[in-house]
């Protein structure tokens, strides 16, 4: 919360335009899709896994939407097919991690490339842009009565409440913390660890497919190369929100606040004449490193102190052995 206040204070100080309805709406539009994908990513990282294929799932879902629409499928049926596609893509990740036993980092690096390749094959060089205005207005219109609130952020707020209740107020949520802290102990407690992880990967696929359709409507077109680099931005937001990369710690409210800190910082820097989107990639990379490093500084310090104590103990022992046993010369028998 302090970081959010600081960022918005910097924004107000740097430009009177920062708090304008248009800039806040742009801020919400830029962060809404990333924030939505951060919700299932939060749960996956909390159980000690990771999903790097989220942006590729988004791209494949968006291009599938465009392909089916260009072949005159009804939009309602397209929604069902794309969500089902998300289930399949997430289940592939989950199956390889939980049933085959492969590390999620390696699996999702592979499916990142696989899904992105399939996305580029679906439409090829073509672009589909004749979607009904009812859907494309999602990206350019605000929620009625709230001129700065985009539809993506409105959906995020609703889902964040649902995810928050599930994580912090249900036995399922407590099981996620248990798995992240100690998988073996969770197994002995009767938690079906592999089934839970599989479910989380499927959930990630569904949410990313939903975001893929939403993002396509926001762009008013479906084409190749959408969402490139989103996976690292999503992970940055999650870790910046206090979720431990090692699992077992984190909150939904922390991730939600981190999303708006990230978006606010992006807006502040872009309002400065010396920054552009390419420059912000440097800032985003630094935030990712700091979000991993800073929470683990106490642990690093503790391990350092323990190492120093062990070295000191070995040094004392070595000095004692070098002196040898005390001399008995001149002592009467």
> Biggest sheet, open or closed, and with what strands and sense?
none
If you consult CATH, what is the topology?
ABC transporter involved in vitamin B12 uptake, BtuC
- Rg, nearest Å: 25 Å
Mean pLDDT: 88
Q: How many domains make up the 3D coordinates? A: 1
CATH architecture: Orthogonal Bundle
Q: According to CATH, what is the class?
A: Mainly Alpha
Order of helices and strands: HHHHHHHHHHHHHH
Discrete helix count? 14
Low-confidence stretches: none
Shape: globular
| Share of residues in strands | under 5%
Strand pairing plus helix content: what structural class?
A: mainly alpha
> Care to count the β-strands?
0
Query: Cα distance, first to last residue?
Result: 78 Å
Share of helix among residues? over 70%
Describe it for me?
It is built from 14 helices and no strands. It is mainly α. Helix 3 (54-70) packs across helix 10 (193-219). It starts with a helix and ends in a 10-residue tail after the last helix. The mean pLDDT is 88.
């Amino acid at each position: 919360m302090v970081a959010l206040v600081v960022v918005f204070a910097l924004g107000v100080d740097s430009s009177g335009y920062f708090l304008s309805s248009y800039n806040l709406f742009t801020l919400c539009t830029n962060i809404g899709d990333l924030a939505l994908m951060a919700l299932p990513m939060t749960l996956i990282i909390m159980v000690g896994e990771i999903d790097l294929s989220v942006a590729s799932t988004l791209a494949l879902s968006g291009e599938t939407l465009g392909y089916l629409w260009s072949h005159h499928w009804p939009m309602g049926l397209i929604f069902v097919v794309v969500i089902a596609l998300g289930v399949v893509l997430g289940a592939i990740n989950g199956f390889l991690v939980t049933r085959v036993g492969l590390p999620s980092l390696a699996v999702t690096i592979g499916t990142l490339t696989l899904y992105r390749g399939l996305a580029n094959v679906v439409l090829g060089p073509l672009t589909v842009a004749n979607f009904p205005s009812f859907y494309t207005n999602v990206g350019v219109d605000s929620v009625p009565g709230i001129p700065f609130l985009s539809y993506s952020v409105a959906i995020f707020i609703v889902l964040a409440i649902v995810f928050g209740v599930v994580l912090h107020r249900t036995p399922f949520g407590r099981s996620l913390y248990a798995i992240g802290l100690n998988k073996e102990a969770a197994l002995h407690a009767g938690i079906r660890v592999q089934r839970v992880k599989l479910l989380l990967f499927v959930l990630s696929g569904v949410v990313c497919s939903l975001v893929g359709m939403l993002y396509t409507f926001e762009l008013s077109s479906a084409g190749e190369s959408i969402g490139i680099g989103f996976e690292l931005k999503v992970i940055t937001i999650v870790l910046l929100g206090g979720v431990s990369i090692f699992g077992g710690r984190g909150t939904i409210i922390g991730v939600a606040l981190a999303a708006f800190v990230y978006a606010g910082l992006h807006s502040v820097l872009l309002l400065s004449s010396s920054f552009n989107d390419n420059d912000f990639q440097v800032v985003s990379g630094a935030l990712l490193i700091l979000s991993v490093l800073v929470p683990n500084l106490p642990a690093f310090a503790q391990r350092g102190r323990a190492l120093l104590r062990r070295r000191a103990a070995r040094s004392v022992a070595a000095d004692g052995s070098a002196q040898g046993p005390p001399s008995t010369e001149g002592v009467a028998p």
